[in-house]
Amino acid sequence: MGGPVVAVVPSRFASTRFPGKPLAEIDGVPMVLRVLKQASKCTTLDQIVVATDDERIRRVVEEAHFTAVMTPEDCVSGTDRIAKALPGISAETPALVVNIQGDEPMIAPEDIDHLVKETL
After folding, report:
1. How far, in whole angstroms, is CA 75 from its chain's centroid?
2. End-to-end CA separation in angstroms for the chain
3. Bridge partners (DSSP) listed for residue 8
4. Half-sphere exposure (Cβ direction) of 83: Cα atoms closer than 13 Å
5. How far apart are CA 74 and CA 42, in angstroms?
6. Is the pLDDT of residue 105 over 70?
7. Which of 52, 70, 72, 74 is the most buried (most CB within 10 A)?
8. Tens-digit pLDDT profile for residues 14-35
9. Phi, psi (5° rounding) for residue 2?
10. 3-state class of 86 per DSSP?
11. H or E element that contains 102
């Protein structure tokens, strides 16, 4: 297979439509943590990382014992944010990078696993 399968959750605070959305609580839990908890149920992911430009998001992620990588504020899209984060994520070139949207707190882990298995 090559390198690890890495999932990256791009997460920025300064959304024009909903500033602070990653930290918005759903039943007392920040949305970004709900996404991470769902992703952590996957059997095919070797690493899960949040790529963010905001210290508040980084802090919440790391306090919950997940990994965050800081990226520049000027990233135009989540894909750009992932590209900026990759050099700081893994020493080994990933076999696959999975972009998990930070505003999908109900994402089904089995759907991610299916995608990874079909891609590799």
Report:
1. 15
2. 7
3. 49, 99
4. 7
5. 31
6. yes
7. 52
8. 888 899 999 999 999 999 999 9
9. 105, -120
10. helix
11. none
- Tokens 């430009």 locate to 53
Q: Which two tokens stand for residue 57?
A: 């998001």
- pLDDT-based confidence at 1, cuts 50/70/90? low
Residue 117 C-alpha from the chain's centroid = 19
- Give the mean pLDDT of the chain: 95
Tell the residue number behind the tokens 């690890």, with chain if given.
4
Task: Report how far residue 9's alpha carbon sits from residue 79's, in angstroms, rounded to the nearest whole number.
Answer: 10
Q: Six-digit token pair at 59?
A: 């802090």
Give me 5's structure tokens.
């399968």
If one counts every other C-beta atom within 10 angstroms of the C-beta of residue 75, the result is: 19
One DSSP character per residue, 20-38 reads: TGGG-EETTEEHHHHHHHH
| DSSP single-letter state for residue 53 | S
Token pair in block for residue 93:
């070139």
Q: For CA atoms 48, 44, 26, 24, give the dihedral sign.
A: positive
Phi, psi (rounded to 5 degrees) for 116: -60, -45
